[in-house]
Design brief:
Layout (H helix, E strand, L loop, with lengths): L1 E6 L4 E8 L6 E9 L6 H19 L3 E5 L7 H19 L4 E5 L1 H9 L6 H11 L11 H19 L8 H7 L7
Parallel strand pairs: 1-4, 4-5
Antiparallel strand pairs: 1-2, 2-3
Helix pairs in contact: 1-2, 3-5, 4-5
């Protein structure tokens, strides 16, 4: 099963595709859609939609998983983020993909065992789980977050729910083959 994970943003949208068919997740493609902030907001939404539609047509994933926006300080920013999420969801829905949404806490907990993990911790764990070399081209925080969304969906699908760990030590104890020094 190919899973497309999306970390939506009105300036940068991260994407990551993993192959979860063999039981071990492997990265297929990841990166970012960087939007020109001098473009109008509707033009940026169209660019998100078009870029993700092209990505879906190229890689033909089986499902799309996306991070849900949560309450923020600035209502205008939240509206823009919600619209970016909608553009990404429509790209998938128009290609007949199922769409699943996850909260940032669900995603972080699924990947790190801690729902309050930092972006750096998420990036480290995603790199470790997917066996990506340090300094891999295109592996930004936004791409790592998108891959984390895909991994969260894979965990949910293969276990019926997100795997739960009581902390870093329990994750390592249960996954010695997924952690390297």
């Amino acid at each position: 099963m190919l899973i497309l994970g999306i970390d939506p943003g009105s300036r940068v949208t991260g994407y990551g595709i993993i192959d979860a068919s063999s039981g071990d997740e492997t990265p297929v493609a990841f990166g970012t859609v960087r939007l020109d902030t001098s473009d109008s907001h509707p033009d940026r939404l169209k660019e998100i939609f078009d870029a993700l539609t092209d990505l879906i047509c190229e890689h033909t994933p089986d499902a799309l998983a996306i991070e849900m926006p949560v309450y923020g300080q600035n209502p205008q920013s939240m509206l823009k983020l919600g619209r970016a999420q909608a553009a990404a969801m429509l790209a998938g829905l128009n290609q007949d993909l199922s769409v699943a949404q996850y909260t940032p806490k669900e995603i972080k907990k699924s990947v790190t065992g801690n729902g309050n993990a930092s972006k750096t911790q998420v990036q480290y764990m995603v790199r470790s789980i997917l066996n990506l070399e340090k300094g891999t081209s295109g592996f930004t925080h936004d791409a790592a977050d998108a891959l984390a969304v895909a991994l969260c969906h894979s965990n949910r699908g293969s276990h019926g729910e997100t795997q739960s760990y009581t902390g870093w030590a329990s994750f390592v104890a249960n996954n010695p083959d997924r952690v390297s020094e």
